[in-house]
Amino acid sequence: MIRSKGKEVSTPFITPPILNYPATLINYITIPPFSEQMVEAKVPHHNMIDVLFEPNPRLKNKALFIASTLLHIEDQRIKISIINATDRQQTLSKGTKLGITTQIAASIGVTMPLNDVQERIPKGKAYIKLSPKGKEANITNKLKSRNMQMIALHDEQHQCRECKQYFDTGNELFKHLRIKCYSEEIREQINKLTEHINDDKQREQISRILWKYGKLFDISEPSKIDITLKNAIDTGTHRPIHTPPYRKSNKDQETLRKETDKLMGSGIIEHSTSPWSSPVVLVKKKDGTTRFCVDYRRLNQITTKDAFPLPRIDDIYDQLTTATYFTKFDFKAGYFQVPLDKSDRPKTAFSTRDGHFQFKVLPQGLTNGPPTFQRIVNQ
């Protein structure tokens, strides 16, 4: 709108046609898992500035993410970044359609002939406001929305879970985890878990997964889950059972004292005044260390059995028939991560030469231990 001497003259807006050009991959590429890679794409237009790139939605189905962005076309080429958000490497063939580039142009105000009015417009009295309309406005809003989603995804994929620091690429994050953030014990544990893999490429693929979730391989004291078991040891109205401690050598007594001190310090057991008591046994493991166990056979005889089903080994074998990689994942002191209800704790009591104790967590040796733990895993 132009105003002069009390007169207003409108200028029509002419929106140029929006031209779309496909962007196709120039070379065959392989993107490592949880990584970002810069690639070149070909566009059938020699040079153009300020074009909007929108990714091919089919790539998102493969967990390959490209941000919507404004960029320049130079010699029919553009450079864009692709994120592989999966735990496996992905390949794209030459000529793969990565997305569409759209020429962006603001609405143009065309002034109609005004004779000498244009020469007499008072200073500060002419106003022309250009704003995106129609499809261009939708493109602008879509660009903002998608960019915010990609920023959030990028931050989540490349954020260290330990120190919360952000990194530009997955490679920088993994380097940071290897060198700085994880403890020496975790680094040694991960290296030990992959040293038997002879193929360098396969070892790198597995290592990336382990480094990403390296905190799971913490070999320090086990944590406790936020759940409390109810009626894990249902003995009905049966009177308490008391079995005197088994006789042990001085060496075993010293080992028993160290084990109880360790369990007490970890918050796994506590002092008890319970009328229940079961004897302790020390079992040698394959690695030469000692497993602290309590003989709960008499307690198990009067405990109502939990009928929750356990996985069948033959069913597990059937599920592995098409597998390529085989591994196992063991909980760190799995039972000790499960808190025990206060009403059940007295029934787990045991005695040593140094005192009377009871478990605060699910101990090994209970008849309902396996089904109770399996129910938690399934949930």
TrEMBL record:
The keyword Aminoacyl-tRNA synthetase does not apply. Keywords: Endonuclease, Hydrolase, Nuclease, Nucleotidyltransferase, Protease, RNA-directed DNA polymerase, Transferase. Residues 236-255 are annotated as: Disordered. Residues 264-379 form the Reverse transcriptase domain. Transmembrane segments: none annotated. It comes from the Eukaryota. GO terms for biological process: proteolysis. GO terms for molecular function: endonuclease activity; peptidase activity; RNA-directed DNA polymerase activity. This is Reverse transcriptase domain-containing protein. It comes from Rotaria magnacalcarata. The lineage of its organism: Eukaryota, Metazoa, Spiralia, Gnathifera, Rotifera.
